[in-house]
Design goal:
Length: 376
């Protein structure tokens, strides 16, 4: 009888300890807060709690798993238990290293450019204020984004490093080992233009300008939706192919890619809309010719090259077989001057308007910004 009583006491004590641990764990990780409305971004969750903001970034290559969890809290606030130092971001961020010109331009637009202390791929920047700060050494040149100058970045003592993750990319182990907080900017993997643009709500909160970012996104969203409605009025939907052959591969936008969605929203048709991919799909040139040889329009992005019909056909005789080539519906965007990549990310409304003006000049004859010029 005595032995049985001891066993019961032991079981009750164990149950009490387990329940206490569970309760503590719930208080630590399952505290409910206010979700920031995200209507389009599929890989991002922002939750405001009493003392901090919790950010969950979904793994875009395995949406059942989490790529990163961040805790944003005031400079002097006590960090919640259960999170590593690399997950804690003290806001507003005042010292940042940014790997991409796309994100640097957004931060500058949100009037927080002074917080940028280091930048990769400086040669891709054409933002005048940022260029001036690089010349004055107010912003350090941290090298190439694929092979950054790790020592220079560490010397800057940044509070965060904003970079774009890649599937099986291996990250930046040296920066992680140095104890730096890396922000995995997976916005480019979103499946809609507004989904990518909506990530500005996170980036604004990092720099203490969440309301400003929310307001900017609201403007972009309203304009994009109005333009999409205009594109839907088109009676004829011309088909569109994209870019050029590199090596033996010709990449075309997948159905769920931001460019693929934008073509459809502009009143066009993506010949590869059956390919359910959230990014470009790599195809053989022969397959592109077979499936899209009769495409009505051909849009090319190129970095500073002078391209004409003769140079294209000389580059690859296959090009001359396309209907768009024969009909002269060839357009090029010089990515070194057009801002097409930057605006596609956070001002997709401007690019959408330009695409509608090409495919349907009867709907929009003169866009507010041109990204493409006709190839003669």
């Amino acid at each position: 009888m005595l032995k049985r009583t001891k066993v019961l006491k032991y079981l009750m004590l164990t149950l009490t300890l387990v329940c206490t641990a569970c309760a503590a764990n719930v208080g630590r990780h399952e505290e409910e807060g206010k979700l920031i409305p995200l209507k389009y971004a599929e890989n991002l969750k922002i939750e405001e709690l009493d003392d901090y903001t919790k950010v969950v970034i979904k793994n875009p290559w395995d949406t059942t798993s989490t790529l990163q969890t961040l805790i944003l809290l005031d400079k002097d606030a006590e960090a919640p238990a259960g999170y590593s130092e690399s997950q804690i971001v003290r806001i507003p961020v005042e010292r940042a290293v940014i790997f991409s010109a796309i994100h640097a331009n957004l931060i500058d637009e949100l009037e927080k450019g002074n917080a940028i202390k280091g930048l990769c791929d400086v040669s891709y920047i054409d933002n005048r204020s940022i260029i001036e700060r690089v010349k004055k050494n107010s912003i350090a040149d941290c090298g190439n984004s694929m092979t950054p100058n790790v020592e220079s970045i560490i010397k800057l003592s940044p509070e965060i490093v904003m970079l774009s993750p890649y599937e099986n990319g291996g990250g930046q182990p040296k920066l992680e080992q140095a104890g730096l907080t890396l922000i995995q900017c997976a916005d480019y993997m979103e499946t809609s233009p507004l989904g990518q643009a909506e990530w500005m709500k996170l980036f604004g909160r990092l720099f203490g300008v969440g309301e400003r970012a929310d307001s900017l996104f609201g403007e972009v969203e309203n304009r994009y939706r109005n333009l999409k409605n205009k594109g839907a009025e088109a009676k004829y939907r011309p088909s569109v192919i994209w870019d050029r052959i590199y090596g033996n591969v010709w990449s075309q936008p997948g159905k769920d890619s931001t460019i693929g969605r934008m073509i459809e929203d502009a009143g066009g048709r993506n010949p590869f809309s059956e390919t359910k991919a959230s990014a470009s799909v790599n195809l053989s040139p022969e397959k592109v010719l077979f499936e899209a040889g009769d495409a009505d329009y051909w849009l090319i992005r190129s970095a500073g090259e002078k391209i004409g019909k003769e140079s294209l056909e000389k580059d690859n005789p296959l090009y001359g077989q396309f209907k768009a080539f024969k009909n002269g519906n060839l357009y090029i965007s010089d990515t070194t001057t057009s801002h097409i990549f930057e605006d596609k990310a956070f001002h997709p409304d401007l690019l959408l308007e330009s695409l509608i003006s090409i495919l349907h000049p009867e709907i929009i004859p003169s866009p507010s910004k041109e990204y493409f010029s006709k190839i003669n």
